[in-house]
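# step 3/5: fold
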Amino acid sequence: MRMGLRTWVGLVAVIGVIFMLTACESTKHALGIGEPPPPPAPRYYDFPDVLVPPELDLDTKGSVVYEVGGTKAGVLFFSGRVEVESLSEFFRKSMQRDGWSLVSSVRFNRLLLSFVKADRACQILIWEKPLTTEVEIQLLPIKK
């Protein structure tokens, strides 16, 4: 059974219409059709009260988390393309919302933010590299 030219043209047209109707969401947004996707949200990693901006990626190989008396402690390393000042402002605001108190801010070739809570201390170290910004978050229990 041979298909004629009209059948081929019709089949290609139907496939083209189906493809156009099922275009992905990003294509629809790029064309100005529909709602834009929501921006990525900040998230909590291993420490339930230390929020991290979505632009930072966790370095799982360098990070270490352990538990001491039911409290998580350790160090998390992140990197991303974010300005140091933007990160400083983000951490100052989010840490305060999560019940932390800023006790010091030291700027040298890096930025060190130190926070405390009743039973823990958190230091956030931020520095720039040629292509990325690095962040180190240390969380330690405080003995009373």
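# step 4/5: annotate
The mean pLDDT is 86.
# step 5/5: archive (pending)
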